[in-house]
Amino acid sequence: MSMLTIEDAWARLDAACAPLPAASLPLVSALGRVTAVPVHAACDLPPFDQSGVDGYALSVAGIRDWPARLPLGGTIAAGTLAAVPALDAGTAARIYTGGMIPQGADAVVAQEWVEREGESLVVARPVPVGQDIRRRGEELCAGTLMIGRGERLNAGRIAMLAAAGIDRVRVHAAPRVRVLVCGDEIVPAGRTLRLGEVYDANGPLIASWLRRNGYPDPEIEAVPDREAVVSEALRRAFDSADLVLSAGGVSVGDRDLIVPEAERLGAERLFWRVAQKPGKPVYAARHGRALLIGLPGNPGSVLVNLAVFVARVLGCLEAEADHAAALQVGFLLAAAAGDPQRDTWLRVRRRIGEDGSLGLEPLPRQNSHMISNLSVADALAWLPRSAEQFPVGTRVRCLSLRL
Ligand SMILES: Nc1nc2c(c(=O)[nH]1)N[C@H]1C(S)=C(S)[C@@H](COP(=O)(O)OP(=O)(O)OC[C@H]3O[C@@H](n4cnc5c(N)ncnc54)[C@H](O)[C@@H]3O)O[C@H]1N2
Ligand code: MOO
Questions:
Q1: Do residues 125 and 158 both lie within one domain?
Q2: Ligand 1: does its nearest atom lie under 6 Å from the Cβ of 250?
Q3: For a Cys-Cys bond, which of 19, 126, 229, 258 suits 249, CB 3.0-4.6 Å?
């Protein structure tokens, strides 16, 4: 049976994704979304010359003799709205961190370095011009490009834009995701299992993975293995979602209904089966503007395909500039077996060595129906197909599970 390489499957998904429309959102509501336009600073940073410390503003250019004794004028606090009076020659003004530097001042001296004697200030040692003044625009000027298009907004980027006066930002819509959890034997936790049933791991896995990665909670539907029900669930999902994720029912059993029902509804296949282990029977198709990724039902396979394909499609739908799978290179901390026909995604725990190197510790219980090693697993080591063992120390690529 023909199997696509992982790279070819990525290329087909990339080619099939069209970016979702963009809209302007209040900045903090845009957390996790991707910019649709470049964003430029709305003001200079800092916006005015300001003090970097609590201390005294003075004009050192006019002082000949040190120690200097300077009569004290007014007090300048941060946030003072009224115009700050100019500093009289030969005087000093009390100033707080962030306070506006008065006209005539050319330095600030921190209060720890001076003595107060009545209404005068005694400055023992010479102070260089410019000391502890943060200059207007020294970090950046209004109009400076702060972030390009296609960048995902995290807390730091939101803070940075807010500081530069940005209150709204144009971002691509978050993909609407609908999840179909397939299988007659699947029941939610909390019920007593009857013989033949298993608890649903895939619904909670997909929902929490999406939330963890900054996507809105998806619609989740339990779908029994009946043609009419699968077909109706797919039809509704295609109508209402940008990305449909089904879990289960994509293998070759007679009750594996996702592929035939999706295609009966007119879905165009992008691929079915990828040369990877686990997760081989993964299916991808396009129906109108919606994409379907049929995740094979074993929870270990869902896990792998979320990290390998779903993350990529989501980034693509949001026109993320660097949406390609973020791969790192590490080395195996124990020998591992690959597979002669398929690339292997080996669940590992990442361990940073004392020298900063990235060690990948292969974990037990790798079979695709097992997920108890997720107590510690955080990445997938990518072992190319090979009949040989990979010895300790082999350098391999790895992909975060984004759990
Ligand atoms: N003759 C063949 N049989 C199978 C092949 C194959 O190539 N030839 N591939 C195997 C592989 S690999 C996988 S992976 C599975 C995928 O099959 P399906 O996508 O059709 O998944 P199901 O049969 O529905 O379920 C597989 C397995 O996972 C359990 N499961 C399903 N959903 C959940 C859930 N929500 N929570 C927990 N566990 C779930 C299900 O009970 C089955 O045990 O096919 C192999 N067979
Ligand atoms: O692809 Mo399956 O996930 O190997 O068990």
A1: no
A2: yes
A3: 258
**Is the CB–ligand 2 distance for residue 330 below 6 Å?**
no
Does any ligand 2 atom lie closer than 6 A to the CB of residue 368?
yes
335 shares a domain with 202: no
Q: What is the pLDDT of residues 142-170, one digit of tens each?
A: 999 999 999 999 999 999 999 999 999 99
- Residue 139 resides in a domain: no
261 and 388, same domain (yes or no): no
The CATH number of whichever domain residue 64 belongs to comes to 2.170.190.11
Q: Give the Å distance between the CA of 296 and the centre of ligand 1.
A: 6
Residue 323 has pLDDT above 80, yes or no: no
Q: 237 and 186, same structural domain?
A: yes
Among 173, 207, 164, which Cα is nearest to 30's? 173
Q: Residues 190, 291: one domain?
A: yes
pTM for the structure as a whole: 0.93
Task: Identify the domain containing residue 384 by its residue range.
Answer: 328-400
pLDDT tens digit sequence for 54-72:
999 999 998 999 999 999 9
Check pocket membership of 248 for ligand 1, CB cut-off 6 A: yes
Comparing CA positions, the residue from 88, 124, 122, 93 lying closest to residue 107 is 93
- CATH code of 250's domain: 3.40.980.10
